[in-house]
Amino acid sequence: MQQQKKFRDAIFVVTEERSCPIYNIGEELKVEALCAVLPEAKSVCMILVEKLIEITAKKESFQQFSQLGPKRSIFSCGGCQGLIQFEYKKKKGFSTLQMKLLSEAEELRRKKHLDKFYSKLRDFQLFESLDDGALYDLAELLELKQYDKDKVVLKKGDPGAHLFILLSGKVGVIGDDGLRLAEMGKGEIFGEMSLLSGEPVSCSIHSLHETEAALLSIKNFKHVLKKYPVLQLFLLKMLVDRAQSMALRSGNITSGMAGELDEISIVELLQLMNTSQKTGRIELLFDDAKATVLFNEGELIQIRYRNLKDKEALFALLAKKDGHFSYTKGLPAELENQQPFGGFMGLIMEGVQYIDEQEYGDS
Fold first, then answer.
1. Which of 55, 132, 154, 363 has its CA 20 to 30 A from that of 250?
2. The CATH number of the domain where 182 resides is what?
3. Are 80 and 61 in contact (CB under 8 A)?
4. 220 and 238 share a domain?
């Protein structure tokens, strides 16, 4: 009876994993008094629970372990689409005070690890909707990694393996020509696109300063999304916003696109319409009023803002820093043959000069 009870308080460790949707190599699976204790912050696989109870409850299983002595005892669980192998790890009591202190030190280190992640993640917009318990669950799954300046964090073409959460520092998104397309700093995330799509990494990411990031493996990423659906909604919105921002930078503005003027200035937005030879309408919404800018093949044909028209309205708009914009393709039939009220570049240069003179005069 003494031996059987000791065996039932067994520990197993995952030694191999092939497409298991939940568990990773190195995670421990415990059985205490015929109760399964699985890794924290993970979904419970009842197939694995039944397998563990079956192994530890059978007298024959215990006798098999006893006869094996120091040899490895390996079991498999392949009850779903994946497979894991786990090895029996005989639990040894802490017979000395020193061993007990080592165990307590390890537990303290783990708690400090979780507290460190928790305190950093609590202020991130991505995790505002998670309660304290859920955030601690997430922290349990994260791995801390540090990068020196000018190091490759992600390489284009590599398979997506992790979600990256920037805790400090800054990284750059690098294009095929080696030019920096964008920058990301504390609180921002990347790597999620390849995780969601299954496609290789689309752009290289380099560290611009010493950078600290929390990494979430693809398996744990999918687990978190399944457990916390609110994060799915946040990621979906973020992906849409990011795709739109990249489209604006590349000049690929499309009908229905909308955004904020802190992402792209009015001058840049108007130049984008001109160089793309767009025909359509830009609606601008400010705190005090709204404005309409009409283009025909990239040329300005009509602007209305408050009681101002065309050139005067343009000059007033160029001074605006904050607001919302949206673009709609096409013109009303009566304006399809409307002529531009001036050359585009000449109007922009004159307007910018006018704004500079106004600001200089005010100072």
1. 154
2. 2.60.120.10
3. no
4. yes
From 321, 328, 317, 324, select the one nearest 257 (Cα to Cα): 328
| Exposure class string for 288-303: b at 16+ Cβ within 10 A, else e | eeebebbbbebbbbbb
Q: Are 157 and 200 in contact (CB under 8 A)?
A: yes
List pLDDT tens digits, range 266-321.
Answer: 887 888 888 788 899 999 999 889 999 999 998 999 999 999 999 999 999 998 88
Regarding pTM above 0.85, the answer is no
Tokens 């305190």 -> residue: 119
In terms of domains, do 125 and 237 share one? yes
Q: Is residue 205 part of a domain?
A: yes
List the Cα angle 258/351/253 in 5-degree steps: 25
- In a domain, residue 96? The reply is no
Residue numbers of the domain that contains 77: 2-89
Pairing mode of beta strands 152-154, 204-207: antiparallel
d(CA 321, CA 264): 10
| Nearby residues of 47 by Cβ (< 8 Å), 6 or more positions away | 77, 79, 80
Domains: count for the chain: 3
Q: Evaluate whether 287 touches 279 at the Cβ level (below 8 Å).
A: no
Whether 245 and 275 share a structural domain: no
pLDDT in tens, 196-233: 667 788 889 999 999 999 898 888 887 777 777 777 66
Domain boundary among 220, 249, 278: 249
Q: Is residue 34 part of a domain?
A: yes
Burial of 35 from C-beta contacts in 10 A (0-12 / 13-18 / 19+): exposed
CA distance 85 to 66: 20
In a shared domain, residues 262 and 355: yes
Length of the chain: 363
User: How buried is 61 (Cβ within 10 angstroms: 0-12 exposed, 13-18 middle, 19+ buried)?
Assistant: middle
User: Dihedral sign, CA of 114, 24, 27, 78?
Assistant: positive
Q: Is residue 101 one of the residues assigned to a domain? A: no
Helix/strand/coil (H/E/C) assignment for every residue in 271-292: HHHHHCCCCEEEEEECCCCEEE
